[in-house]
Specification:
This protein is α/β, with parallel strands linked by helices. Helix content is 37%, strand content 17%. Strand 5 (114-115) and strand 6 form a beta hairpin.
Amino acid sequence: MQNTAVQNTAVQNTAAQSTYPSASSSPWSGRLVGPLGGTVVGLVGARGGAGATTLAALLAAALAQHTATVLVDLVGGAGLDVTLGLEAVPGPRWPDLTGAGDVAGDQLLAALPRWGRVALVSTDRARPGLPPPDDVLDRLGEAAGTVLLDLPPCDVLARRAPVGRCDLVVVVAGRDITSVGGAVALRTALGPAAARTGLMASDARRGTLSLAELEQAAGLPLLGRVPYDRSLVQSAERGLLRARRATARIPATLARTVLGLQ
């Protein structure tokens, strides 16, 4: 990574986006963000299409109303910047962040592309592959109030995802037997982090299980339910993710749980 380039981007972003919060403090909450004090939340889908990535983005937007928030794409593929319509926005992507331990957390945070108030660490569809995320997460943990990780289920199941860093893991599952099987497998693979894991029921994967049946079968405490929102799905497909007011209340409620961990 060209550290000078990242630092220059940080200066440009700070000048162009003066409404974004300081990396060292949260003007919305009035609380200083101490060293390594950021709350880390991981989100993972129990099966494909459960909506974990969408919920991660909406939760990040809700949290960013209260504290400096970073959304970290660990899934790969096309990249979260495409989902959020930011593929043309300048700023470093994962391939640029190798060796980010040499960059101060506030400089790294300021250099990242923005989705509203949310800073984004995204993959790059033109340059696939993720470097080891540890040094990036260390720096972001110094500078941000909350760090959200969009986790790939395969990495969680293989026990190579950074779930040990998470203060809370959210498993997003449909109300169907396949989702239950996926949630149980994830809970087993999470190891000690399973004690810090909750379940979000998603109607994106429709099924016949009640919320109580899903909670009991998955063996995880239920945090809430995400209703199916066709307009949300359509906006995500166009790269302009938007939630209706009723849908936005769900991540806002979950955000209060996350903020309570700080």
